[in-house]
Amino acid sequence: MDLTTPYLGLTLSNPLVASAGPLSQTLDGIRSLAEGGVGAVVMFSLFEEQLRRQAARDSRLIDAHTHSFAEALDYLPDPAGGAPHLAQSYLTLVERAAREIDIPVIASLNGADMGGWVSFGRDLQDAGAAALELNIYFVPGDLTTSGSRVIAQHLEIVTAVTEAVGIPVAVKMSPYFSAVGDVALRLVDAGADGLVLFNRFLQPDVDVETLEASTAWALSVPDEGRLPRTWIAALRRHTTASLAATTGVADGTDVVKNLLVGADVVMSTSALIRHGAGYARTMLDELEAYLERKDFADLDALRGLLAVPPEVEGNAWQRSSYVAAMERAKAIYGTLEGSTSGAWTSESPA
């Protein structure tokens, strides 16, 4: 079955994309993902802080006359395979992957302010990146920072980068805006060609024995995919921008779920870490088997089938869906004095 999929103006062989993560840190890793069957690879993220530290170190070397020429060379790219300049190392990996891998390679930048995104975005374009994913990880730890300032900062970054580069730009956004849909559409208006829903913010746990906060990162689980699907379903009929679902994609069934609500592509890393890069083919086989079992002629017949219809009033739809879910919970669990009078029906919310 033909699984060809458009994403960010690119043509992918299928809708499964390896999201940014540890598997794409090397050329061999990217090659294994491509051979495993994914339609595109998002490279591991280069962090704004890494670029700043590298720039500061280079500046100190230039200004410090006590350093010898030989010492300064230690910080420059080493053609013999030594430890290269961080930014140059990333660019070299992009260049080699774009040349040697036969699927689109999408570069990824992670940051929170303007930093060096613009100039480095141009460098990534010149290195051969098929597209650029902006992972704007901005948690306003300053409690006086307003929501409007957070949104404005996102829009400033997107506008600056998209005006500077000629390749498609996707924005990996947060689910924690008070009006997610409005922010999503404003990011598109600012120049984003696509949206990746959603970023996973660090949520520290507490170790009651050591009395310390734990910041260990955990792989995603399927239930985390519900939130991205909610907003993809809401956005699908209101934008022509590409929509990518990420988080909680564990198997082929999760791929199907995200396509049904309107995702153009479905991204996964946790499943590929757990099972290996070749697991991508298993997920795609499960997708194809589902399409055949349900008699879908192609992906277009499936994609967006469960998206919110454009004529539905969004606020009422969200509220009625919530009320219906609560009524069903009452019927199933009997938490309100054992009453089952509010049984949920299969009627679609008005």
Search tags:
single chain; 350 residues; alpha/beta; TIM Barrel; 2 domains; eight-stranded parallel β-barrel; two-stranded antiparallel sheet; 12 strands; 43% helix; disordered C terminus
Short summary of the structure?
With 350 residues, the protein is α/β, with parallel strands linked by helices. The chain contains 13 helices and 12 strands. The strands form 3 sheets. Strands 3-4-5-6-7-8-11-12 form an 8-stranded parallel β-barrel, surrounded by 9 helices. The chain has a two-stranded antiparallel ribbon with strand order 1-2.
What does this structure look like?
The protein is α/β, with parallel strands linked by helices. The chain folds into two domains: 5-311, TIM Barrel; 313-350, no CATH class. The chain has 13 helices and twelve strands. An eight-stranded parallel β-barrel has the order 3-4-5-6-7-8-11-12, surrounded by nine helices. A two-stranded antiparallel ribbon has the order 1-2. α8 (226-235) runs parallel beside α9 and α9 (252-261) packs across α11. The chain is globular and about 60 Å long. It starts with a strand and ends in a 17-residue tail after the last helix.
